[in-house]
Amino acid sequence: MLSCLLSAMADATPQYAKVLRGLALQFPRDHGAHPDFRTEWWYVTGALDLPRPDIGFQLTFFRVRTGFAEALRSPIAASQILFAHAAVTLPGEKLLHADRAARANLGAGFSAADCDVHVGAWQMQRSASDVFTLRAQDAQFAFDFSLAPTQPKMLQGDAGFSPKGARAEQASYYVSWPQLQVDGNIVLDGKSQRTQGKAWFDHEWSSEVLGETDVGWDWLGINLVDGGALMAFRIRDTAGATVFAHATLRDAAGRTQTWSGADVQFKALRKWRSARGTEYPVETELRFGPHIVHTKPTIDDQELSTRRPAPVTYWEGLVQVEGSLIGRGYLELTGYAGKIMM
Q1: CA 287, 293, 299: angle at the middle one, nearest 5?
Q2: Alpha helices, DSSP H only, in 81-165?
Q3: CA–CA distance, 264 with 242 (Å, rounded to integer)
Q4: What is the dihedral of CA 230, 61, 239, 311, to 10 degrees?
């Protein structure tokens, strides 16, 4: 998410790997890290039904190739930084969130063979049976979840090649896994409680997504109540206009449809102003193809503001989706508090 990391001290512009259309993704290898690319994240969001309905959670690990110290042979050179964000949304109450950051091989690490990434004791790991393990601990909360697939993964865009703008370079490799069954334990107020729910997994890596005049994106990942899955996003410019948009819908029978460009429209229905003075369209109408849906946040204040490894503020929270499709999932709103550097 943050390509500006250490940029003032960066070496000569490194040669980042490029995202190319037509490359066949290979698993489990492509669940692992891709350190030649500039930016990468493993992102899990979910909604719990136990210990009470509509508790939201997210755990995201980011890897950034900083462009710094690449000529050094030391395994602890600051060429790769990892950081992680975790949050729990308590319906009717508040958002709890925490973050961690460390240098690769110095408090953090990743595997290039499979999904196995950690920052300190926070961890995300995939087993041979495709079950993901998530662990995060903080003074405010902790969780230890297993996420088991109930349906196949989704390769977004064109077989995993996901355009993000008009130029060929603006693209990512993008893999989703919706409708994951969540089991495990969550600690709230010092009490460990059993959990059950549904989650959404995203893995995305790229070297360039936003153009010079782009500031951020609106993104939606929804597990539908009928077993289907909806992903949609738009990239916004400094004027707030959509410069690129895309939506993918997989129905309960496994049939997938996609829409792009003018066929995907985001419209703010209600904005919420944070204590930091930033306005977010927390209730948003999304139109794509024959569908019209709108989001309703579990609570308005799901703004995250972190300072490790660099300051970033954005809105990311559990929402209900209503309209022609019904479900629960996460809405992410970036670039409203300032341009996201990628």
Answers
A1: 125
A2: none
A3: 10
A4: 150
Strands 291-297 and 214-224: unpaired
Q: What percent of the chain lies above the pLDDT cut of 90? A: 83
**What are the structure tokens assigned to 110, written together?**
């990743």
Only one residue has tokens 């209730």, namely 283
Task: Evaluate whether residue 338 is within a structural domain.
Answer: no
d(CA 255, CA 38): 33
> Which residue type sits at 105?
N
- Domain containing 215 — which CATH number? 2.40.370.10
> Does residue 288 sit in helix, strand or coil?
strand
- Dist CA 34 CA 154 (whole Å): 19
3-state secondary structure of 194: strand
Half-sphere exposure in the Cβ direction for 340 (13 Å, CA): 23
Contact 233, 163 (CB under 8 A): no
Domain assignment of residue 8, yes or no = no
User: What is the pLDDT at residue 63?
Assistant: 96
Do the Cβ atoms of 332 and 217 come closer than 8 Å?
A: yes
Work out the percent of the chain whose per-residue pLDDT is above 70. 96
Task: Please give the Cα distance from 341 to 303 (Å, whole number).
Answer: 18
- Counting the structural domains of the chain, the total is 1
Name the average pLDDT for the chain: 92
| Rounded distance between C-alpha atoms, residue 20 and residue 208, angstroms | 12
Domain hosting 320: range is 27-333
How much is the pLDDT for 341? Answer: 67
CB-count exposure of residue 129 (10 Å: 0-12, 13-18, 19+)? exposed
